[in-house]
Amino acid sequence: MSPLTGLAKLRSALWQMEKDMGLDDLSRNERDVLYAFHSAASQTEGSGIVTSDAVRRDRAISEMKHATFHRSLKRLLDMGYIELAPDCKTKQYRLPDHVE
Fold first, then answer.
1. Which pLDDT tens digit goes with each residue over 43-85?
2. Predicted TM-score (pTM) of this structure
3. Measured between alpha carbons, how far is residue 72 from residues 52, 60, 67, 85 in Å?
4. DSSP characters for the chain?
5. Residue 16: burial class (beta carbons within 10 Å; 0-12, 13-18, 19+)
6. 99, exposed or middle or buried, with CB in 10 Å at 0-12, 13-18, 19+?
7. Burial 35-58 (b: 16+ CB within 10 A, else e)
8. How far apart are CA 55 and CA 62, in angstroms?
9. Helix 66-79 / helix 28-41 crossing angle, nearest 10 deg
10. Which positions ≥6 away from 44 have C-beta within 8 Å?
11. Per-domain boundaries in the chain
12. What's phi and psi for 3, nearest 5 deg?
């Protein structure tokens, strides 16, 4: 199997998983931001509090335009995929308990 064939199969599997989880209604940018939040949250030593700066350092979105990032973040907040962290300063977020 060629490397591109392998990548095509991985991409197809990822697309199917996103569809099964109901993430196919999100734009590619929104999914990338959501994945970056999950990646950053997994490195918080249990607090689950993530800053937008930490998320912006993720390789998948580090070159995303500022406005695109904030549009995606706002939509994810509105849809309940991300929450503002309670009792914290601005630009701090957490993943809701129901989102795994």
1. 887 778 999 999 999 999 999 999 999 999 999 999 999 999 9
2. 0.88
3. 12, 14, 9, 17
4. --HHHHHHHHHHHHHHHHHHTTGGGS-HHHHHHHHHHHHHHTTSTT---EEHHHHHTSTTTTTS-HHHHHHHHHHHHHHTSSEEPTT--TTEEE--TT--
5. exposed
6. middle
7. ebbbbbbeeeeeebbbbbebbbeb
8. 8
9. 80
10. 50
11. 27-94
12. -55, -40
Q: Which amino acid is at 33?
A: V
CATH architecture of 27-94: Orthogonal Bundle (1.10)
Single-letter code of the amino acid located at 35: Y
- Is residue 2 within 8 Å of 9, Cβ to Cβ? no
